[in-house]
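To assess whether ligand presence alters the predicted conformation, the chain was also submitted together with zinc ion. Input:
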Amino acid sequence: MEFRQHRFHSLDAYSAIAIFVWKDEPLAGSALDIDTATEGMLSRLIEARELSCDPLAVTTLLSPVGVTASVVLVVGLGLRSDYAAGFAARAAGTAAKSLAGKQRRVVAFYLDSLDVADSVAAVIVGVVGQGIYQNKRSLTPFETACFHTDDLAAIEKGKILGESQNVVRKLVNMPASDLYPESFALQAVELGKASGFEVEVWDEQRLEQERCGAFLAVGRASAHPPRLVIMKYMGGHSDEKPLGLVGKGVTFDSGGLSIKTSEGMMAMKCDMAGAATVLGTMRAIAKLKLPINVIGFAGMAENMIAGNSFRMGDVLTARSGKTIEVHNTDAEGRLVLADTLDVAVDHGVGKIIDLATLTGACLVALGTDIAGLMTNDEELAADVKAAAAACGEYVWELPMHDYFADQIKSSVADIKNMGDSRWGGSITAGKFLEEFVRETPWVHLDVAGPSFSDKPKAWIDGGASGCMVRTLVEYAG
Ligand code: BES
Ligand code: MN
Ligand code: ZN
Protein backbone atom coordinates (compact mmCIF):
# COMPACT_ATOMS: atom_id res chain seq x y z
CA MET A 1 0.00 0.00 0.00
CA GLU A 2 1.38 3.37 -1.02
CA PHE A 3 0.61 6.56 0.90
CA ARG A 4 -0.09 9.98 -0.35
CA GLN A 5 -0.92 13.13 1.48
CA HIS A 6 -3.06 15.46 -0.51
CA ARG A 7 -5.06 18.59 -0.30
CA PHE A 8 -8.69 18.39 -1.17
CA HIS A 9 -9.43 20.10 -4.45
CA SER A 10 -11.24 17.72 -6.71
CA LEU A 11 -13.22 14.62 -5.94
CA ASP A 12 -11.89 12.94 -9.06
CA ALA A 13 -9.40 10.16 -9.43
CA TYR A 14 -10.45 8.08 -6.42
CA SER A 15 -11.91 4.58 -6.53
CA ALA A 16 -13.46 5.17 -3.13
CA ILE A 17 -13.83 7.95 -0.59
CA ALA A 18 -14.37 7.73 3.16
CA ILE A 19 -15.83 10.61 5.17
CA PHE A 20 -16.81 10.94 8.82
CA VAL A 21 -19.84 12.74 10.20
CA TRP A 22 -20.88 13.93 13.66
CA LYS A 23 -24.43 13.37 14.78
CA ASP A 24 -24.90 16.72 16.49
CA GLU A 25 -22.97 19.06 14.22
CA PRO A 26 -23.82 20.49 10.83
CA LEU A 27 -21.93 19.00 7.90
CA ALA A 28 -18.56 20.72 7.55
CA GLY A 29 -15.25 20.37 5.72
CA SER A 30 -15.03 17.38 3.42
CA ALA A 31 -18.51 16.12 4.34
CA LEU A 32 -19.95 19.48 3.30
CA ASP A 33 -17.90 19.33 0.08
CA ILE A 34 -19.41 15.94 -0.73
CA ASP A 35 -22.85 17.25 0.14
CA THR A 36 -22.37 20.20 -2.20
CA ALA A 37 -20.96 18.04 -5.01
CA THR A 38 -23.96 15.71 -4.74
CA GLU A 39 -26.42 18.61 -4.61
CA GLY A 40 -27.45 17.95 -1.04
CA MET A 41 -27.71 14.16 -1.15
CA LEU A 42 -25.98 13.69 2.21
CA SER A 43 -28.08 16.20 4.07
CA ARG A 44 -31.27 14.80 2.50
CA LEU A 45 -30.39 11.25 3.58
CA ILE A 46 -29.53 12.40 7.10
CA GLU A 47 -32.73 14.44 7.30
CA ALA A 48 -34.78 11.43 6.17
CA ARG A 49 -32.95 9.24 8.71
CA GLU A 50 -31.77 6.93 5.97
CA LEU A 51 -28.17 7.66 6.92
CA SER A 52 -27.18 7.10 10.54
CA CYS A 53 -24.53 9.24 12.20
CA ASP A 54 -24.44 6.93 15.23
CA PRO A 55 -20.99 5.77 16.37
CA LEU A 56 -19.41 3.51 13.73
CA ALA A 57 -22.57 3.29 11.61
CA VAL A 58 -21.47 2.68 8.02
CA THR A 59 -23.47 3.82 4.99
CA THR A 60 -22.29 3.09 1.48
CA LEU A 61 -23.31 5.52 -1.24
CA LEU A 62 -22.82 3.93 -4.64
CA SER A 63 -21.77 6.15 -7.53
CA PRO A 64 -23.42 9.33 -6.30
CA VAL A 65 -24.02 11.85 -9.06
CA GLY A 66 -21.38 14.62 -8.93
CA VAL A 67 -18.58 12.38 -7.63
CA THR A 68 -16.47 10.11 -9.86
CA ALA A 69 -15.59 7.62 -7.13
CA SER A 70 -17.81 4.57 -7.34
CA VAL A 71 -18.16 4.44 -3.55
CA VAL A 72 -18.53 7.10 -0.90
CA LEU A 73 -18.42 5.51 2.55
CA VAL A 74 -19.95 7.56 5.36
CA VAL A 75 -18.94 6.60 8.90
CA GLY A 76 -20.88 7.99 11.87
CA LEU A 77 -19.02 9.56 14.78
CA GLY A 78 -21.93 9.94 17.21
CA LEU A 79 -22.17 12.87 19.60
CA ARG A 80 -19.14 15.12 19.93
CA SER A 81 -19.59 15.10 23.72
CA ASP A 82 -19.27 11.28 23.80
CA TYR A 83 -15.97 11.35 21.93
CA ALA A 84 -13.23 9.44 23.73
CA ALA A 85 -9.53 8.93 22.93
CA GLY A 86 -9.04 6.10 20.49
CA PHE A 87 -12.41 6.54 18.84
CA ALA A 88 -10.88 8.20 15.77
CA ALA A 89 -8.83 5.06 15.26
CA ARG A 90 -11.90 2.86 15.50
CA ALA A 91 -13.83 4.99 13.03
CA ALA A 92 -10.99 5.09 10.50
CA GLY A 93 -10.32 1.38 10.97
CA THR A 94 -13.99 0.63 10.39
CA ALA A 95 -13.91 2.57 7.12
CA ALA A 96 -10.70 0.88 6.01
CA LYS A 97 -11.88 -2.60 6.88
CA SER A 98 -15.21 -2.11 5.07
CA LEU A 99 -13.47 -0.86 1.94
CA ALA A 100 -10.74 -3.54 2.01
CA GLY A 101 -13.35 -6.23 1.39
CA LYS A 102 -12.64 -5.70 -2.30
CA GLN A 103 -9.53 -4.84 -4.33
CA ARG A 104 -9.41 -1.05 -4.76
CA ARG A 105 -6.96 1.28 -6.45
CA VAL A 106 -6.92 4.73 -4.91
CA VAL A 107 -8.84 5.24 -1.68
CA ALA A 108 -9.15 8.69 -0.14
CA PHE A 109 -9.68 9.22 3.58
CA TYR A 110 -10.94 12.66 4.55
CA LEU A 111 -9.74 13.02 8.10
CA ASP A 112 -10.56 16.65 8.81
CA SER A 113 -12.91 15.73 11.66
CA LEU A 114 -10.52 13.19 13.20
CA ASP A 115 -7.19 12.75 14.96
CA VAL A 116 -4.87 12.29 11.99
CA ALA A 117 -2.02 10.08 13.24
CA ASP A 118 -4.49 7.76 14.97
CA SER A 119 -6.63 7.51 11.88
CA VAL A 120 -3.76 6.76 9.51
CA ALA A 121 -2.52 4.04 11.87
CA ALA A 122 -5.99 2.55 12.02
CA VAL A 123 -6.40 2.55 8.24
CA ILE A 124 -3.23 0.51 7.92
CA VAL A 125 -4.28 -1.89 10.67
CA GLY A 126 -7.80 -2.19 9.30
CA VAL A 127 -6.89 -3.45 5.84
CA VAL A 128 -4.85 -6.40 7.10
CA GLY A 129 -6.58 -9.59 8.16
CA GLN A 130 -5.66 -12.82 9.88
CA GLY A 131 -6.17 -14.84 6.69
CA ILE A 132 -2.47 -14.76 5.85
CA TYR A 133 -2.57 -18.38 4.72
CA GLN A 134 -5.69 -18.10 2.58
CA ASN A 135 -5.33 -18.34 -1.18
CA LYS A 136 -8.07 -15.80 -1.49
CA ARG A 137 -7.84 -13.26 1.30
CA SER A 138 -10.93 -11.56 2.61
CA LEU A 139 -9.15 -8.22 3.16
CA THR A 140 -6.96 -6.66 0.46
CA PRO A 141 -4.69 -3.64 0.92
CA PHE A 142 -5.42 -0.66 -1.34
CA GLU A 143 -2.94 0.18 -4.07
CA THR A 144 -2.81 3.75 -2.75
CA ALA A 145 -4.33 5.37 0.30
CA CYS A 146 -4.67 9.16 0.25
CA PHE A 147 -5.13 11.25 3.36
CA HIS A 148 -6.73 14.63 3.36
CA THR A 149 -4.77 16.77 5.77
CA ASP A 150 -1.92 19.25 5.75
CA ASP A 151 -0.22 17.55 8.65
CA LEU A 152 2.50 15.48 6.93
CA ALA A 153 4.24 14.63 10.21
CA ALA A 154 1.04 13.15 11.60
CA ILE A 155 0.71 10.97 8.52
CA GLU A 156 4.27 9.73 8.88
CA LYS A 157 3.76 8.99 12.58
CA GLY A 158 0.49 7.20 11.93
CA LYS A 159 2.05 5.15 9.19
CA ILE A 160 4.89 4.01 11.48
CA LEU A 161 2.48 3.17 14.31
CA GLY A 162 0.09 1.25 12.05
CA GLU A 163 2.82 -0.70 10.32
CA SER A 164 4.46 -1.56 13.64
CA GLN A 165 1.16 -2.75 15.04
CA ASN A 166 0.76 -4.93 11.96
CA VAL A 167 4.26 -6.38 12.44
CA VAL A 168 3.03 -7.57 15.84
CA ARG A 169 -0.23 -8.87 14.43
CA LYS A 170 1.49 -10.81 11.67
CA LEU A 171 3.97 -12.48 14.05
CA VAL A 172 1.23 -13.37 16.55
CA ASN A 173 -1.06 -14.72 13.82
CA MET A 174 1.70 -16.96 12.45
CA PRO A 175 1.27 -20.55 13.57
CA ALA A 176 3.85 -22.17 15.83
CA SER A 177 5.00 -24.37 12.95
CA ASP A 178 6.41 -21.25 11.26
CA LEU A 179 7.10 -19.00 14.21
CA TYR A 180 9.39 -20.49 16.86
CA PRO A 181 12.21 -18.99 18.95
CA GLU A 182 14.86 -19.10 16.21
CA SER A 183 12.58 -17.78 13.46
CA PHE A 184 11.38 -14.98 15.76
CA ALA A 185 15.02 -14.08 16.47
CA LEU A 186 15.76 -13.94 12.72
CA GLN A 187 12.78 -11.65 12.17
CA ALA A 188 14.06 -9.40 14.97
CA VAL A 189 17.51 -9.22 13.37
CA GLU A 190 15.97 -8.27 10.01
CA LEU A 191 13.69 -5.65 11.55
CA GLY A 192 16.59 -4.24 13.54
CA LYS A 193 18.60 -3.77 10.35
CA ALA A 194 15.69 -2.22 8.50
CA SER A 195 14.61 0.17 11.23
CA GLY A 196 17.77 1.03 13.13
CA PHE A 197 18.25 -0.93 16.36
CA GLU A 198 20.86 -3.48 17.39
CA VAL A 199 19.89 -7.08 18.00
CA GLU A 200 21.78 -9.66 20.03
CA VAL A 201 20.56 -13.24 20.29
CA TRP A 202 21.42 -15.58 23.15
CA ASP A 203 21.17 -19.23 22.10
CA GLU A 204 20.71 -22.20 24.43
CA GLN A 205 24.47 -22.47 25.16
CA ARG A 206 24.60 -18.84 26.20
CA LEU A 207 21.45 -19.25 28.29
CA GLU A 208 23.17 -22.21 29.95
CA GLN A 209 26.30 -20.13 30.67
CA GLU A 210 24.05 -17.42 32.09
CA ARG A 211 22.42 -20.03 34.36
CA CYS A 212 18.90 -19.24 33.12
CA GLY A 213 17.56 -22.42 34.72
CA ALA A 214 13.89 -21.41 34.85
CA PHE A 215 13.78 -20.20 31.25
CA LEU A 216 15.64 -23.28 29.93
CA ALA A 217 13.36 -25.73 31.75
CA VAL A 218 10.32 -24.39 29.88
CA GLY A 219 11.95 -24.78 26.46
CA ARG A 220 13.68 -28.09 27.12
CA ALA A 221 11.15 -30.50 25.58
CA SER A 222 10.78 -28.62 22.32
CA ALA A 223 12.48 -29.44 19.02
CA HIS A 224 12.93 -25.67 18.74
CA PRO A 225 15.51 -24.47 21.28
CA PRO A 226 14.91 -21.26 23.27
CA ARG A 227 16.34 -17.85 22.46
CA LEU A 228 16.68 -14.59 24.35
CA VAL A 229 16.48 -11.67 21.93
CA ILE A 230 18.01 -8.39 23.15
CA MET A 231 17.21 -5.26 21.14
CA LYS A 232 19.01 -1.96 21.77
CA TYR A 233 18.06 1.49 20.62
CA MET A 234 20.11 4.34 22.07
CA GLY A 235 18.54 7.58 20.89
CA GLY A 236 18.92 9.43 24.19
CA HIS A 237 21.78 10.84 26.27
CA SER A 238 24.55 8.36 27.01
CA ASP A 239 24.10 8.94 30.76
CA GLU A 240 20.37 8.24 30.72
CA LYS A 241 19.38 4.80 32.01
CA PRO A 242 17.50 2.88 29.33
CA LEU A 243 13.88 1.86 29.60
CA GLY A 244 13.57 -1.93 29.66
CA LEU A 245 10.75 -3.56 27.69
CA VAL A 246 10.34 -7.25 28.48
CA GLY A 247 8.08 -9.68 26.62
CA LYS A 248 6.86 -13.22 27.18
CA GLY A 249 7.60 -15.14 24.00
CA VAL A 250 6.12 -18.61 24.39
CA THR A 251 5.69 -19.51 20.71
CA PHE A 252 3.33 -22.33 21.65
CA ASP A 253 1.93 -23.20 25.06
CA SER A 254 0.72 -26.79 25.21
CA GLY A 255 0.73 -26.50 28.99
CA GLY A 256 3.54 -29.07 29.18
CA LEU A 257 2.81 -32.09 31.40
CA SER A 258 0.00 -30.03 33.00
CA ILE A 259 -1.43 -30.30 29.50
CA LYS A 260 -4.19 -27.99 28.31
CA THR A 261 -7.41 -29.24 26.71
CA SER A 262 -7.62 -29.08 22.89
CA GLU A 263 -9.90 -26.08 23.24
CA GLY A 264 -7.57 -24.37 25.71
CA MET A 265 -4.61 -24.97 23.42
CA MET A 266 -6.27 -23.73 20.23
CA ALA A 267 -5.18 -20.09 20.40
CA MET A 268 -1.85 -20.76 22.13
CA LYS A 269 0.23 -19.65 19.16
CA CYS A 270 -0.66 -16.21 20.58
CA ASP A 271 1.41 -16.80 23.72
CA MET A 272 4.33 -14.80 22.30
CA ALA A 273 2.26 -11.63 21.91
CA GLY A 274 4.22 -9.87 24.66
CA ALA A 275 7.52 -10.52 22.87
CA ALA A 276 6.07 -9.46 19.51
CA THR A 277 4.76 -6.25 21.10
CA VAL A 278 8.24 -5.46 22.40
CA LEU A 279 9.67 -6.04 18.91
CA GLY A 280 6.97 -3.95 17.20
CA THR A 281 7.47 -1.15 19.73
CA MET A 282 11.25 -1.17 19.20
CA ARG A 283 10.58 -0.82 15.48
CA ALA A 284 8.24 2.13 16.00
CA ILE A 285 10.56 3.90 18.45
CA ALA A 286 13.57 3.46 16.14
CA LYS A 287 11.66 4.58 13.04
CA LEU A 288 10.33 7.63 14.89
CA LYS A 289 13.89 8.30 16.10
CA LEU A 290 12.61 9.07 19.61
CA PRO A 291 15.26 10.73 21.81
CA ILE A 292 15.38 7.95 24.41
CA ASN A 293 17.34 4.82 25.28
CA VAL A 294 15.39 1.56 25.22
CA ILE A 295 16.40 -2.07 25.49
CA GLY A 296 13.89 -4.76 24.56
CA PHE A 297 14.14 -8.31 25.90
CA ALA A 298 12.10 -11.10 24.29
CA GLY A 299 12.21 -14.42 26.14
CA MET A 300 11.42 -17.04 23.50
CA ALA A 301 10.63 -20.69 24.26
CA GLU A 302 8.14 -23.36 23.24
CA ASN A 303 6.34 -25.20 26.05
CA MET A 304 6.08 -28.79 24.79
CA ILE A 305 6.03 -32.36 26.06
CA ALA A 306 8.74 -35.02 25.71
CA GLY A 307 10.78 -37.44 27.81
CA ASN A 308 12.91 -34.55 28.98
CA SER A 309 10.02 -32.24 29.96
CA PHE A 310 10.27 -30.37 33.23
CA ARG A 311 7.91 -31.87 35.77
CA MET A 312 5.72 -31.11 38.75
CA GLY A 313 7.88 -31.11 41.84
CA ASP A 314 11.07 -30.19 39.97
CA VAL A 315 13.09 -27.45 41.62
CA LEU A 316 14.57 -24.94 39.20
CA THR A 317 17.33 -22.50 40.01
CA ALA A 318 16.67 -19.16 38.35
CA ARG A 319 19.46 -16.91 37.10
CA SER A 320 19.06 -14.73 40.19
CA GLY A 321 19.81 -17.74 42.39
CA LYS A 322 16.22 -18.07 43.68
CA THR A 323 14.89 -21.63 43.66
CA ILE A 324 11.43 -22.37 42.25
CA GLU A 325 9.33 -25.45 42.94
CA VAL A 326 7.21 -26.34 39.90
CA HIS A 327 3.56 -26.88 40.85
CA ASN A 328 2.18 -26.57 37.34
CA THR A 329 4.07 -26.68 34.04
CA ASP A 330 1.34 -24.53 32.48
CA ALA A 331 2.49 -21.60 34.63
CA GLU A 332 5.48 -21.36 32.31
CA GLY A 333 5.40 -17.71 31.28
CA ARG A 334 6.52 -16.50 34.71
CA LEU A 335 9.46 -18.95 34.59
CA VAL A 336 10.65 -17.54 31.25
CA LEU A 337 10.12 -14.00 32.53
CA ALA A 338 11.92 -14.66 35.84
CA ASP A 339 15.24 -15.01 34.00
CA THR A 340 14.44 -12.48 31.29
CA LEU A 341 13.65 -9.81 33.92
CA ASP A 342 16.87 -10.66 35.75
CA VAL A 343 18.88 -10.14 32.54
CA ALA A 344 17.08 -6.83 31.99
CA VAL A 345 18.00 -5.61 35.49
CA ASP A 346 21.64 -6.57 34.88
CA HIS A 347 21.61 -4.42 31.73
CA GLY A 348 21.14 -1.38 33.98
CA VAL A 349 17.65 -0.42 32.90
CA GLY A 350 16.10 2.38 34.95
CA LYS A 351 12.52 1.15 34.60
CA ILE A 352 10.86 -2.00 33.32
CA ILE A 353 7.56 -2.55 31.58
CA ASP A 354 6.81 -6.20 30.86
CA LEU A 355 4.06 -7.56 28.63
CA ALA A 356 2.78 -11.10 28.85
CA THR A 357 -0.21 -13.25 27.95
CA LEU A 358 0.27 -14.53 31.46
CA THR A 359 -2.99 -15.72 32.99
CA GLY A 360 -6.45 -16.93 32.02
CA ALA A 361 -7.48 -15.40 35.36
CA CYS A 362 -6.93 -11.95 33.87
CA LEU A 363 -9.61 -12.72 31.27
CA VAL A 364 -11.96 -13.79 34.05
CA ALA A 365 -11.23 -10.61 36.01
CA LEU A 366 -11.23 -7.99 33.27
CA GLY A 367 -12.71 -9.56 30.13
CA THR A 368 -11.25 -9.70 26.67
CA ASP A 369 -10.38 -6.05 26.03
CA ILE A 370 -8.58 -4.82 29.13
CA ALA A 371 -4.98 -5.44 30.15
CA GLY A 372 -4.28 -6.06 33.85
CA LEU A 373 -1.68 -3.68 35.26
CA MET A 374 0.44 -4.59 38.27
CA THR A 375 3.30 -2.58 39.70
CA ASN A 376 5.81 -1.93 42.46
CA ASP A 377 5.90 1.79 41.64
CA GLU A 378 2.75 3.90 41.54
CA GLU A 379 4.48 6.78 39.75
CA LEU A 380 5.48 4.62 36.80
CA ALA A 381 2.03 3.01 36.83
CA ALA A 382 0.39 6.45 36.66
CA ASP A 383 2.50 7.32 33.60
CA VAL A 384 1.63 4.07 31.83
CA LYS A 385 -2.06 4.52 32.64
CA ALA A 386 -1.97 8.07 31.29
CA ALA A 387 -0.29 6.86 28.07
CA ALA A 388 -2.92 4.14 27.63
CA ALA A 389 -5.75 6.59 28.25
CA ALA A 390 -4.32 8.99 25.67
CA CYS A 391 -4.43 6.24 23.02
CA GLY A 392 -7.78 4.75 24.01
CA GLU A 393 -6.22 1.44 25.02
CA TYR A 394 -7.58 -0.10 28.20
CA VAL A 395 -5.56 -1.01 31.28
CA TRP A 396 -6.81 -1.58 34.82
CA GLU A 397 -4.70 -1.85 37.93
CA LEU A 398 -4.90 -4.91 40.15
CA PRO A 399 -3.83 -4.68 43.81
CA MET A 400 -0.51 -6.14 44.93
CA HIS A 401 -0.99 -6.64 48.68
CA ASP A 402 1.80 -8.49 50.45
CA TYR A 403 -0.40 -11.39 51.47
CA PHE A 404 -0.55 -12.52 47.85
CA ALA A 405 3.21 -13.10 48.08
CA ASP A 406 2.56 -15.56 50.95
CA GLN A 407 0.60 -17.68 48.48
CA ILE A 408 3.68 -18.41 46.37
CA LYS A 409 5.82 -19.56 49.30
CA SER A 410 7.06 -23.13 48.92
CA SER A 411 7.95 -25.60 51.64
CA VAL A 412 10.67 -27.06 49.41
CA ALA A 413 12.16 -24.13 47.50
CA ASP A 414 12.23 -20.34 47.88
CA ILE A 415 8.99 -19.93 45.91
CA LYS A 416 6.60 -21.98 43.81
CA ASN A 417 5.24 -21.10 40.38
CA MET A 418 1.56 -21.02 41.36
CA GLY A 419 -0.66 -19.64 44.09
CA ASP A 420 -2.34 -21.84 46.72
CA SER A 421 -5.60 -21.65 44.75
CA ARG A 422 -6.97 -20.24 41.51
CA TRP A 423 -8.28 -17.14 43.25
CA GLY A 424 -6.39 -13.99 42.38
CA GLY A 425 -4.37 -15.93 39.81
CA SER A 426 -3.25 -12.84 37.90
CA ILE A 427 -1.99 -11.22 41.08
CA THR A 428 -0.05 -14.24 42.35
CA ALA A 429 1.57 -14.35 38.89
CA GLY A 430 2.41 -10.65 39.21
CA LYS A 431 3.82 -11.23 42.70
CA PHE A 432 6.01 -14.01 41.28
CA LEU A 433 7.45 -11.65 38.65
CA GLU A 434 8.06 -8.98 41.30
CA GLU A 435 10.56 -11.36 42.92
CA PHE A 436 12.89 -10.86 39.93
CA VAL A 437 12.93 -7.09 39.31
CA ARG A 438 14.88 -6.24 42.50
CA GLU A 439 14.48 -2.49 43.24
CA THR A 440 13.72 -1.48 39.66
CA PRO A 441 10.47 0.47 39.16
CA TRP A 442 8.34 -1.96 37.22
CA VAL A 443 4.95 -2.31 35.55
CA HIS A 444 3.58 -5.68 34.45
CA LEU A 445 0.86 -5.73 31.79
CA ASP A 446 -1.07 -8.99 31.57
CA VAL A 447 -2.37 -8.86 27.99
CA ALA A 448 -3.96 -12.34 27.89
CA GLY A 449 -7.31 -10.68 27.05
CA PRO A 450 -6.69 -7.87 24.58
CA SER A 451 -3.80 -9.28 22.53
CA PHE A 452 -5.81 -11.93 20.71
CA SER A 453 -9.48 -12.14 19.84
CA ASP A 454 -11.58 -15.02 18.58
CA LYS A 455 -14.01 -12.62 16.95
CA PRO A 456 -13.54 -9.73 14.54
CA LYS A 457 -14.55 -6.19 15.44
CA ALA A 458 -15.86 -3.55 13.06
CA TRP A 459 -12.40 -1.95 12.83
CA ILE A 460 -10.12 -4.98 13.05
CA ASP A 461 -10.14 -8.60 11.99
CA GLY A 462 -10.14 -11.41 14.55
CA GLY A 463 -6.82 -12.84 15.73
CA ALA A 464 -3.97 -10.66 16.93
CA SER A 465 -4.71 -7.02 17.81
CA GLY A 466 -1.27 -5.41 18.11
CA CYS A 467 -2.46 -3.82 21.36
CA MET A 468 -0.14 -1.72 23.56
CA VAL A 469 2.27 -0.68 20.78
CA ARG A 470 0.64 2.75 20.74
CA THR A 471 0.55 2.97 24.54
CA LEU A 472 4.25 2.09 24.83
CA VAL A 473 5.28 4.55 22.11
CA GLU A 474 3.14 7.22 23.78
CA TYR A 475 4.83 6.44 27.11
CA ALA A 476 8.30 6.50 25.53
CA GLY A 477 7.75 9.63 23.46
N1 BES B 1 -0.60 -18.66 28.29
C1 BES B 1 -1.40 -18.98 29.41
C2 BES B 1 -2.41 -17.88 29.77
C3 BES B 1 -3.46 -17.57 28.74
C4 BES B 1 -4.72 -18.16 28.81
C5 BES B 1 -3.23 -16.64 27.75
C6 BES B 1 -5.68 -17.85 27.89
C7 BES B 1 -4.21 -16.32 26.82
C8 BES B 1 -5.45 -16.92 26.89
C9 BES B 1 -0.52 -19.23 30.63
O1 BES B 1 0.73 -19.76 30.37
C10 BES B 1 -1.24 -20.22 31.50
O2 BES B 1 -1.45 -21.30 31.06
N2 BES B 1 -1.57 -19.81 32.73
C11 BES B 1 -2.23 -20.65 33.64
C12 BES B 1 -1.62 -20.43 34.99
C13 BES B 1 -2.06 -21.40 36.04
C14 BES B 1 -1.61 -22.80 35.70
C15 BES B 1 -1.49 -20.98 37.37
C16 BES B 1 -3.72 -20.28 33.63
O3 BES B 1 -4.04 -19.12 33.46
O4 BES B 1 -4.53 -21.19 33.75
MN1 MN C 1 0.68 -21.88 30.25
ZN1 ZN D 1 1.51 -19.40 28.53
